[in-house]
Specification:
Blueprint lengths: L19 H26 L26 H10 L17 H66 L6
Keywords: Coiled coil
């Protein structure tokens, strides 16, 4: 029986949705709308970081060449009012790595060496296991061949004995 003994009216397979269905559908639709608007806004602004593997930087706007200033009073006012686009500061050419970077490099080198040693040990252990298994199989095969040879020799001797003295049938 798939239904309770006294089913409520209009019993069907979507009855369990009940009065909460409208609330859930509203929040689902609101989330979908917000996501669509956010994606549309990102596309309009040209932000393609999540969609494309290759991100090229937008070309920087060329800075205007400073015009010849006529008076020092207006030159100072213009200097304070103009906004200058500052790019990222270039790294100095003779910068030496810090202690943290050297320490991290040493730690990474040690980890690489330990990983390589562990891989070598595992491969040696695997090869030793394979060799011991092969040796044991070879020993079992040799034992079986000697046992079969002995059994064949015994059967030949019995056959020759039967040929020499055949059984008497009366």
């Amino acid at each position: 029986m798939s239904t309770p003994p006294n089913p409520p009216p209009y019993w069907y397979h979507h009855y369990h949705r009940g009065p909460r269905f409208a609330k859930r559908f509203f929040w689902f639709a609101l989330g979908g709308f917000a996501t669509a608007m956010w994606m549309r806004n990102r596309d309009a602004n040209g932000d393609f970081r999540m969609q494309h593997a290759c991100m090229r930087h937008k070309p920087r706007e060329q800075l205007r060449a400073p015009e010849a200033e006529s008076s020092p009073a207006t030159a100072g006012a213009r200097a304070w009012s103009q906004e200058v686009a500052h790019g990222p500061m270039p790294a100095p050419g003779n910068a030496t790595p810090g202690w943290e970077q050297e320490n991290a490099t040493e730690i990474i080198a040690d980890m690489k060496k330990k990983a390589a040693d562990t891989a070598v040990e595992l491969s040696e252990a695997t090869l030793d296991t394979i060799m011991s298994t092969a040796m044991s199989l070879k020993a079992k095969l040799a034992e079986r061949t000697t046992r079969l040879d002995e059994e064949n020799k015994r059967l030949r001797q019995e056959l020759e004995a039967l040929k020499k003295s055949p059984p008497r049938l009366v």
